[in-house]
């Protein structure tokens, strides 16, 4: 009869495997999260979310201020006095620019 119905053959093999399955489940059970673990995780996620929102608010506020300062009208330049300064002139000898061979 076992050769005729494969479902019954599978059911018979499951009955003999129950102690192995039970020991596997009992080994995994202590590592599963408890209600207290999930509550602590929820509190950590809420704290992280709040810190992220505050950080984004500060970051975008700084960006808004920087962009606002970028488009502000520059202050009027001071009028030069009657005296002008001589330009700075740097003289480089002609031989200094040649590459050494």
Molecular structure report:
With 101 residues, the protein is mainly alpha-helical. The protein has 2 domains: 1-32; 33-71. Helix content is 57%, strand content 0%. It has 3 helices and no strands. The protein has helices at residues 6-16, 18-28, 35-70. The model has no long low-confidence stretch (mean pLDDT 81).
What's the layout of helices and strands?
Elements: H1 6-16, H2 18-28, H3 35-70
Query: What percentage of the residues does DSSP assign to strands (E)?
Result: under 5%
Low-confidence stretches: none
Mean of residue pLDDT values: 81
Q: How many runs of DSSP E, i.e. beta strands? A: 0
The overall number of domains is: 2
Please give the count of helices: 3
Could you write a compact summary of the structure shown?
The protein is an all-alpha fold and 101 residues long.
